[in-house]
């Protein structure tokens, strides 16, 4: 009987310890691959907390304390109000724009904002650039949280540590650039 009590206490202790442990550390990964197979590929793997700590060290002439200017309205539309409306809406493709040279779509899936931009191939056979962005809506809200006309990169990075994964991919004829977050320490 005593042995069973010790086993039960041990199991409860280990369960409590695992529940109290913080979430795994999140990492920002950047991969740049040259499409022509020429050297010059780059891989960067940085803990989000490190990126948050380094951001204020960037010289002030390149940015202003982790904040960048932004027109808070575009063509008279308040970006913060629009984002809040998207957040409260069901999953859907909200905007699809098709022009002769590109296609753009904006959608919501779960807690994520999805933006896709695809340039169409040109008559000369050049492949168009594609951009695919998946970002948690709370991260975008953190970027736009202040009532000023600034994007707060530091707040966005801190929100990334809490909110989940972001994935941005840009493909062109010359290179592929991908920026994403996860709990792995390498980009393999």
Characterise the protein shown here.
- The chain has 188 residues and is α+β, with helices and mostly antiparallel strands.
- It has one domain (25-182).
- It is 29% helix and 36% strand.
- It has 5 helices and 12 strands.
- The protein has helices at 2-20, 48-54, 79-88, 137-143, 153-163, and strands at 27-34, 42-47, 67-69, 73-74, 77-78, 92-98, 102-109, 112-119, 130-136, 150-152, 167-171, 175-182.
- An 8-stranded antiparallel sheet has the order 2-1-12-11-9-8-7-6.
- Helix 2 (48-54) packs antiparallel against helix 5 (153-163) and helix 4 (137-143) packs antiparallel against helix 5.
- The radius of gyration is 21 Å and the shape is globular.
Q: Strand sequence of the main sheet, in spatial order?
A: 2-1-12-11-9-8-7-6
Work out the number of β strands.
Answer: 12
| Mean pLDDT over the full residue set | 77
Number of helices: 5
Beta strand %: 35-45%
N-to-C order of helices and strands: HEEHEEEHEEEEHEHEE
| Domains, number | 1
What Rg is obtained from the alpha carbons, in whole angstroms? 21 Å
Share of residues in helices: 25-40%
- The parts where pLDDT drops under 50 for at least 5 residues are 6-21
Largest sheet: 8 strands, antiparallel
Q: Rough shape? A: globular
Distance between the termini: 50 Å
Instruction: Decide which structural class fits the backbone.
Output: alpha+beta
Please describe the topology of this protein.
Layout (H helix, E strand, L loop, with lengths): L1 H19 L6 E8 L7 E6 H7 L12 E3 L3 E2 L2 E2 H10 L3 E7 L3 E8 L2 E8 L10 E7 H7 L6 E3 H11 L3 E5 L3 E8 L6
Antiparallel strand pairs: 1-2, 1-12, 3-10, 4-5, 6-7, 7-8, 8-9, 9-11, 11-12
Helix pairs in contact: 2-5, 4-5
């Amino acid at each position: 009987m005593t042995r069973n009590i010790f086993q039960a206490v041990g199991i409860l202790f280990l369960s409590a310890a695992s529940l109290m442990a913080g979430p795994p550390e999140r990492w920002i990964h950047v991969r740049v691959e040259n499409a022509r197979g020429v050297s010059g590929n780059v891989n960067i793997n940085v803990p989000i907390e490190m990126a948050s700590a380094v951001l204020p060290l960037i010289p002030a002439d390149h940015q202003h304390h982790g904040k960048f200017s932004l027109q808070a309205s575009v063509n008279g539309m308040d970006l913060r109000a629009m984002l809040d409306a998207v957040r409260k809406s069901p999953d859907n493709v909200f905007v699809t724009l098709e022009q002769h040279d590109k296609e753009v779509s904006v959608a919501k899936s779960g807690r994520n904002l999805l933006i896709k931009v695809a340039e169409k191939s040109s008559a000369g056979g050049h492949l168009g650039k594609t951009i695919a962005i998946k970002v948690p809506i709370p991260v975008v809200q953190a970027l736009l949280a202040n009532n000023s006309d600034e994007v707060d990169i530091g707040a966005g990075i801190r929100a990334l540590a809490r909110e989940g994964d972001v994935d941005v991919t840009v493909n062109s004829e010359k290179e592929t650039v991908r920026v994403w977050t996860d709990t792995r320490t390498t980009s393999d």
